[in-house]
C-alpha cells in the first residue's frame, strides 16, 4: 500500500460519498487511475463497505449498552453457531471475541431500558450455549465511531 492508497483510505473514511473526480483531484492522480486503485482496495477487502453513520436517537434507539457474554463450554461446543445467531440480531451492532473473563463483547442498541432488558432476557439469554451476560449502559457517547488512523507506519 503506497501513499496514494493511504490517501484514498483517509479521504473515503472522511466522506464515503466523495466522487471519483473529487478523489482524483485530491490525490493528484487521473480519474481512471484513482478508480482502479479504489476497486483494487475493495477487491482486496481493505475497504469493507460504505455506510452512513446514523444518530441512533434520531431513529428511536435511545439506549446503547455494551454486553459481555460468556459461553457454557460444557453444554455447548459449536461456537460458530452461537456467533451466527449473534450476527443475525439487528440490535447487536458490533460483536467481538475478547480475552479475559468473558468470550464476547457486544454493542447493543434498543429503544429504551425496557426493550433492552427484554432483548437481553428473552432473546440473548435464550441462545443455546450462552451461560451469562453482564451489561453496561452507555451514559453518553463521547467519540462516535470513526475512521482508522492510516499512516505510513502501518505499511
TrEMBL record:
InterPro entries: AsnC-type_HTH_dom, Dimeric_a/b-barrel, Tscrpt_reg_AsnC-like, Tscrpt_reg_AsnC/Lrp_C, WH-like_DNA-bd_sf, WH_DNA-bd_sf. One of its GO terms (molecular function) is sequence-specific DNA binding. Keywords: DNA-binding, Transcription, Transcription regulation. It comes from the Bacteria. One of its GO terms (biological process) is response to amino acid. This is Lrp/AsnC family transcriptional regulator. Residues 1-62 form the HTH asnC-type domain. SMART domains: HTH_ASNC. GO terms for cellular component: cytosol. Pfam families: AsnC_trans_reg (PF01037), HTH_24 (PF13412).
